[in-house]
């Protein structure tokens, strides 16, 4: 995974609560194994009833055409487990999401992809949102994971919290599967123990007298 | 004496494998159930990385999200679905994973099939790359929805790396009135506490009202844990759970059944166990519930009016947006709103007990003119049982479409969708904007309100239609 140290770029504010995965990456009318994640990005939310892009929607405004930092409200990414809702963010260039809170599954999916998820308490979010709305895409913001600071026009640097473990994982670009495979012998030991403690869990065999009706 | 433990403590400790460099706990996944929407991507990643599946024998594949519901369907009936189903078949064959394919007599929605086959067991961890994996908590398992990268991680390691969730117990008191069911309990909880109060927690549902629920109803209750913000929700197993599982194809049998039973009886939270959060709801006067807005906290009793535009500026804006999308005015009654479609189905409410409830209500009646009504069984086994009881005839004679099993209109991934501005009463689990088709106005309810509304042609109170 690509290490994340810092990002500098346009910060786009979509200041609503409970933005769900059906809004971020809707199920497309024509489904494909390889969808165009750039096109999927808030596909319906950005369009009016006539399917044309709504120029008044913040995500359609030219100054926000290539955002790096996405700023939003509470419970961002609630809903489905679909990782496409993170991939669509990455496809348009977003590598950091700053929210008042982020849904558990969505936050995990961010970490899996090297996208920095930041959760800010309300009083800090209030200040940052104002500055980002005022900047209106004209000047860049920087999010630095090493110093845990957000900087940009309109005020002093803003500190953010992230667990040491998540910070390390992103900074070092640690490969999720690689990290776990270091524990392969412990997995084997666990299985060995489970085979005697709860053998029915280590085997998923069909009882011979339960063949399905044809 | 040992410190009293919650059921979550017991489940977590029993599955703890190791602590990773990044502080996450690796927990062992006893059963991993895949579906065709997300597994093909992971299969492709595996092939690229030249890695294998560690425990294909504990992994099962389902075709559910993209399958057509039309009788006589093939994999190309939903043209978009074919590529997913083919990739699922190829990947499952390549890695030796048992696939419940389109024409398998036990095909269906994974969260419906896994319990009915006994693939879910009390005390087991059960992962699915779908957020509604929490459904199977109704049997006392820890169901965990996961993303696509996590899916790949489980295939390779048979573990999931997670932060240990905090524990929450929601105690539901009281006895439910007729025509009030598990779905109403979940919706009520959402209306009281919102759509994100469960973030970071695993929820244990407990109390008199939960004990009184059938196992199938408990699956419905747990199905909506994710809508509360929790990746997992569960009910402690009891004699009903054991009776439900006995003799199921993949449940332990013979001497092993007795050994399993002895372990399962030790699973419930100990007396005096400490939860990180406790909530309590009196359900004795609960009325049938229905959503009026575009998230699940926007729920009211079916006899209530749509909320007025009160609260702070933020709350007003949110309500205005939802009301505009739903085509509603503040303060208007929800009863009597004209309905275009009714959908009875999904991992929330498409088990045999749901279909029996609906059928009993519509028997000998007709769906109101102008209403398109669909009943889609949660699995091919459910469909077979329903047909053996003549339920299909009741649905068809009433004017319902009776289809083949799959996720269908829940997310419309198979092409079953509404049209813009159509109002749908749906037994599914998400009322998000555009979820059931562009501009579609979804009202979530239990099967009782849905069945009553199909007959009345308007949103109706099942207690007065009965």
pLDDT averaged over residues of chain B: 97
Radius of gyration of chain A: 21 Å
Number of domains of chain B: 3
CATH superfamily of the largest domain in chain B: Aconitase, domain 3
Give the % helix of chain B: 25-40%
Number of helices of chain A: 9
The spatial strand order of the largest sheet of chain B comes to 5-4-3-6-7
Overall 3D shape of chain B: globular
Percent of residues in beta strands of chain A:
5-15%
Chain pair sharing the greatest interface: A-B, 67 and 87 residues
- What's the order of the H and E elements of chain A? EHHEHEHEHEEEHHHH
- List how many beta strands of chain A DSSP finds: 7
Q: Work out the number of β strands of chain B.
A: 19
The secondary structure category of chain A is alpha/beta
Largest beta-sheet details of chain A: 7 strands, mixed
Q: How many independent structural domains of chain A? A: 2
Cα radius of gyration of chain B in angstroms? 21 Å
Your description of this structure?
The complex is a heterodimer of chains A (214) and B (466). Helices cover 34% and strands 15% of the residues of chain A. Chain A has a seven-stranded mixed sheet with strand order 4-3-2-1-5-6-7. The radius of gyration of chain A is 21 Å and the shape is globular. Chain A is α/β, with parallel strands linked by helices and 214 residues long. Chain B has 466 residues and is an alpha/beta fold. Chain B has three domains: 7-162, Aconitase, domain 3 (2-Layer Sandwich), CATH 3.30.499.10; 166-237 and 261-282, Aconitase, Domain 2 (3-Layer(aba) Sandwich); 291-465, 2-Layer Sandwich (Aconitase, domain 3), CATH 3.30.499.10. Chain B contains 16 helices and 19 strands. Chain B has helices at residues 7-15, 39-49, 79-95, 110-117, 148-157, 182-193, 208-211, 215-223, 239-245, 255-264, 313-326, 352-362, 380-388, 391-398, 447-456, 462-465, and strands spanning 16-19, 25-28, 31-35, 59-62, 98-100, 125-128, 142-145, 159-162, 166-173, 201-206, 232-234, 277-282, 289-291, 299-301, 341-344, 372-375, 400-402, 423-426, 441-444. Chain B is globular and about 55 Å long. The relative contact order of chain B is 0.14. At the A-B interface, helix 4, helix 6, helix 7, helix 8 and helix 9 of A face helix 3, helix 5, strand 8 and helix 10 of B.
